[in-house]
Fold this protein.
Amino acid sequence: MTESSADTGAGERGTRHFGYGRFAAMVSALLLAGLAAVPLAAIAKGEAGPALALLLVATSLVFLFGLLIVAERLKWSGPVLSIGPEGICDRRIGPAMIPWERIRQIHLFRARSQLYLAVIPDDPHAFIDPPGRLAAFVVRVNTLLRMPLLSLSLTGLDASRRQIVLALRANLPAHLADEEG
């Protein structure tokens, strides 16, 4: 955890920065690599017919996709999510701060066993930069899953739910104070 994201318990106003937990990411990478290898090993042994082999390859590809995401996280340094008096910035969606004045609603929620921070600004697309293929894919997936467009995953960050809540409570303006979960 970065110094400024320390849990003071007091919820002092000021910017808190949260990065990726590197140890958890490395453990996840090893686990995903192992899970991707198991179906391929079954195919290599010749224990699968064509239909099962196709299913096993598809399973391996899912795990390899997860491995790519985790590997990308390991390349990041510095804060990923910042919560401060000016607003919220999540570098995964772009470098711009989302000012509190532009946020209509904010809340924590769980989906697929993961914790998310839903940030609902007046124009979500204004804060997705670059509006490339990955961002477009994430927006489409969030829409299909009926999640807010800007659903910021808190999984893998070096912060507890309590630390995120304290940072929000310390910095939320009055118009959002009742929205935070």
